[in-house]
Design brief:
It is a single chain. By secondary structure, the chain is of the alpha+beta class. A hairpin with a 4-residue loop joins β5 and β6. The chain is elongated and about 70 Å long. The N and C termini lie far apart (55 Å).
């Protein structure tokens, strides 16, 4: 029984850690005014009939704080890459000189910064909901163990430990959101 309890606690912590990793990757994609090649993660390009991540068909680099360059490995990929960037809802128009695609990031307006902070808040709320759902499942599993004969004291301690894990990951979400908001709002 105690072994089952340890498995529940371990799985809870791992699942919450995955929720944090997912939040971090989503926050990375939200543009904060600085050019970052990772903001193109998740954009898929049609490559010989297969959707392929843009990073697998072109070399992506940040020239400076406002410019990203993409150099396709095959010349015929310029049009599909350009099309994928326009369809991606990044709000950036690619500039194509025939061999290299340049993305010039416009300075963010105050209104756009506030919208980006709001988007970050939404992502953070999704992460918190995931963490709460993981907590709920863990507590349900602990209650099942209690019905199967595990002592009430041990179960109460385990539930407290699950809550402590939940609090730790929730505060991590808050810290990530505060850092991203600061990054976005700095002019």
């Amino acid at each position: 029984m105690a072994e089952d309890l340890n498995v529940i606690l371990k799985n809870t912590s791992e699942s919450m850690s995955k929720a944090i990793n997912h939040l971090e990757s989503n926050l990375m994609k939200i543009r904060a005014g600085k050019a970052n090649p990772s903001m193109l993660d998740g954009i898929m390009v049609e490559y010989y009939g297969n959707p392929t991540p843009i990073s697998q068909v072109a070399n992506i680099s940040a020239l400076d704080a406002r410019t990203i360059t993409l150099q396709p490995w095959e010349k015929n990929m310029i049009q599909p890459i350009e099309k994928a960037i326009m369809m991606s809802n990044l709000g950036i128009n690619p500039q194509n000189d025939g061999s290299v695609i340049r993305l010039f990031l416009p300075p963010l307006t105050e209104e756009r910064r506030k919208q980006l902070v709001k988007n970050c808040g939404t992502e953070g709320e999704h992460a918190k909901v995931s963490i709460r759902n993981i907590r709920r499942d863990a507590i349900e599993n602990i209650k099942k163990l209690q019905k199967d004969g595990l002592s009430e004291d041990i179960c109460k301690n385990a539930e407290k430990e699950v809550q402590d894990i939940t609090d730790k990951y929730t505060s991590t979400v808050e810290k990530l959101l505060a850092a991203k908001e600061k990054e976005i709002m700095v002019v």
